[in-house]
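Chain entry —
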Amino acid sequence: MAKSTFRQWMYRGQRPNWLARILNRVDAALGASGVGARYGLVTLEVIGRASGRTISLTVAIAVVNGQRYLVSMLGENVQWVKNVRAAGGRAVIHSSGREEVRLEEVPVEQRAPILKAYVRRAPGARSHMRVNQHAPLEEFGKIAGAYPTFRIVFAGPD
């Protein structure tokens, strides 16, 4: 099975299968400990909109012009995106420390350079985004509407 086919299998239906869930837990532990920060990996915590419980997952941060961004490599129909929106953007990022943040959704027309930086940072996302990391910005602009993108803003304690 080719690497991209394997990654697509792990997230069929835009949800992680059993293997992806196990690997995500390992990634979350590395992200929360700060080990993954070197590679742009952090643990995102957001309150579940239905359960009210804290949901944790590993995400890659893209940096463009000194700003940090999160991108949903699986598109619109994923739980963490729905939870972030329901929480009004309130979330916590762990990377060798706890940072309360607000995630602000980036307008579609501003996403292309962020998506390009993201696929360079997050090799696992490449099989889901279908644009070569070396493609011109225009190609990223064509797919931008399919990938929710959020700017990370420091929120501080409530």
In short: The longest strand covers residues 54-64. The chain has one domain: 3-154. The chain has six helices and six strands. The domain at 3-154 is CATH 2.30.110.10 (Pnp Oxidase; Chain A).
